[in-house]
């Protein structure tokens, strides 16, 4: 049967509980374990590896951000994440003005380096200010990659970015965002940030209850999980699911904004709700 692994993003714990009293890295990783997560994701270092072992967190997901387009850095970046314990690696590639034809060639180069190193699964993340900032660019890169290699690209879909770009609503979340099911089913990571068509991150809770916005979002995740689980090739695979909630940043520059619940407590609650959605997705 398909399995789910719940992955915390340590980014959600930046500035928690307050910027002046931010927890140490060990306290953050201890909290991840206590909240029932199976692992965490970040740009991994040996210290992350040590603490994951101490708190018995099985899955370490690496992260690479390459906006320079410098292919010479690919192998070094991949090797560093593998050495720190990553099997799954998430990649934000290039810039918003990188042409899909260039981005596809760069991804081919990165995958060749990953194949030489071996033992890692690379996923191209959907994200603004990268080569995948719009659905059109993302799907064009996927098409060009398959033309160049004969293989289907692995994408880490963070649909919150597309939802805002295309101004969609609960009535068409699934029909619009899941219209290429084979690409969704070929992925092994999913960043699950609750969204609506106006905001790429909405609050999970308000006054101790789930918000209307997250309830609509969770209905979409049922369709997402059902789509992924229905693929024959996924019957013995694991989907690595991250409740992707960003923290508040000084000056109002973050995903979390004044008045919303703090990112980390909401992420822990969202983990539980995503597991319920997974179980409902038959």
Q: Report the CATH C-level class.
A: Alpha Beta
CATH hierarchy: architecture: Alpha-Beta Barrel
* Total number of beta strands: 10
* Class inferred from helices and paired strands: alpha/beta
- Give the CATH superfamily: Divalent-metal-dependent TIM barrel enzymes
Sum up the overall morphology in one term.
globular
| Contiguous helical run count | 10
Poorly predicted regions: none
Number of individual domains: 1
Mean pLDDT: 96
Radius of gyration: 18 Å
List the helices and strands in order: EHEHEHEHEHEHHHEEEHEH
CATH names the topology as TIM Barrel
Residue fraction in strands: 15-25%
> Could you give the distance between the termini?
11 Å
Strand line-up of the largest beta sheet: 6-5-4-3-2-1-10-7
What's the helical proportion of residues? 40-55%
Query: Could you give a short account of the major beta sheet?
Result: 8 strands, parallel
Q: How is the topology of this model organized?
A:
Layout lengths: L2 E7 L15 H10 L4 E3 L4 H9 L4 E8 L7 H10 L4 E6 L6 H18 L3 E5 L9 H15 L5 E2 L2 H8 L6 H5 L3 H6 L2 E3 L13 E2 L2 E2 L1 H18 L8 E5 L20 H18 L2
Parallel strand pairs: 1-2, 1-10, 2-3, 3-4, 4-5, 5-6, 7-10
Antiparallel strand pairs: 8-9
Helix pairs in contact: 3-4, 4-5, 9-10
Q: Keywords, please?
A:
globular, two-stranded antiparallel sheet, 282 residues, alpha/beta
Summarize the structure.
This protein is α/β, with parallel strands linked by helices. It is built from 10 helices and 10 strands.
How would you characterize the overall build of this protein?
- This protein has 282 residues and is α/β, with parallel strands linked by helices.
- The protein contains 10 helices and 10 strands.
- The strands form 2 sheets. It has an 8-stranded parallel beta sheet with strand order 6-5-4-3-2-1-10-7. It has a two-stranded antiparallel ribbon with strand order 8-9.
- A hairpin with a 2-residue loop joins β8 and β9.
- It is globular.
- 43% of the residues are buried.
